[in-house]
Specification:
alpha+beta; three-stranded antiparallel beta sheet; two-stranded antiparallel ribbon; 3 helices; 5 strands; 29% strand; globular
């Protein structure tokens, strides 16, 4: 679905049918340690770029919204490989163990 920033993201959801006004990032909503999502966060989110660059079905992402210095909002994106159970340091390239197997 197209985000408020204009990019396609499978984790963004909106519903404005018949008077509803639902907008949410389901990746942030699933993270209980995160601050709530707001539409301007989509402009600085790296998730659509990562999903375009890395099509691995085993990549699991976690997006956290935090306050920096009490003023600024920052997005922290981490990922791990669901197949090998290890963190992925470079999300654009994906899991090194999965790449070695292919």
């Amino acid at each position: 679905m197209r985000t408020p920033a204009g990019t396609e993201c499978r984790h963004y959801y909106e519903d404005f049918n018949r008077g509803r006004q639902t907008q949410e990032c389901r990746l942030i909503k699933a993270n209980t340690r995160s601050l709530p999502w707001t539409p301007p966060l989509c402009a600085k989110c790296r998730v659509p770029d990562v999903l375009r660059a890395n099509g691995s079905p085993h990549l699991r992402l976690e997006l956290t919204v935090r306050k920096r210095f009490g003023l600024f909002t920052a997005l922290e994106l981490t990922g791990y490989c669901g197949r090998h159970g290890r963190p992925v340091p470079d999300l654009m390239r994906g899991c090194e163990a999965c790449a070695a197997e292919d």
